[in-house]
Q: What sequence folds into this?
């Protein structure tokens, strides 16, 4: 009897953890403030990696990271500027947390978007032509989650055949 209950617990814990994670991500996307950010392809030879469209997000800041491997944040309001995470000003009421990666670019974990293989080529071309934008949900703690990919201002599903 103890082996059977141990097996049930071992099976239920990962399932419950995945369900809780999915629920928390859904709540974050639904409750955060929506921000629209332009995207551009960063490597014309390989915008697609598997079924993920990979791109750079244009946060609207003129200066990038000065070092790599450090935590950073981009203040979106009242003024757009990149700060080290511990130097974020108190009056910044909307920001995205992330880090400076090995190429000294800001990375918030929203730099790829899953797409079905059937639409890969069409979306790659449109992003390469600078027609893409992300709708991102940003919570009060600076966590960003992708709500949708826009092509020419419309949801990506409406822009592919």
A:
């Amino acid at each position: 009897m103890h082996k059977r209950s141990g097996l049930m617990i071992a099976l239920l814990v990962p399932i419950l953890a995945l369900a809780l994670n999915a629920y928390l991500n859904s709540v974050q996307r639904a409750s955060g403030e929506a921000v629209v950010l332009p995207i551009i392809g960063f490597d014309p030879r390989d915008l697609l990696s598997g079924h993920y469209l990979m791109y750079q997000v244009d946060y609207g800041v003129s200066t990038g990271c000065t070092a790599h491997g450090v935590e950073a944040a981009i203040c979106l309001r009242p003024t757009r500027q990149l700060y080290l995470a511990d130097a974020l000003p108190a009056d910044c009421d909307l920001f995205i947390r992330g880090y400076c990666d090995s190429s000294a670019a800001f990375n918030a974990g929203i730099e790829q978007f899953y797409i079905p293989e059937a639409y890969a080529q069409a979306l790659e071309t449109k992003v390469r032509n600078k027609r893409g934008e992300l709708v991102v949900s940003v919570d009060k703690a600076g966590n960003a989650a992708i709500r949708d990919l826009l092509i020419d201002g419309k949801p990506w599903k409406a822009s592919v055949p």
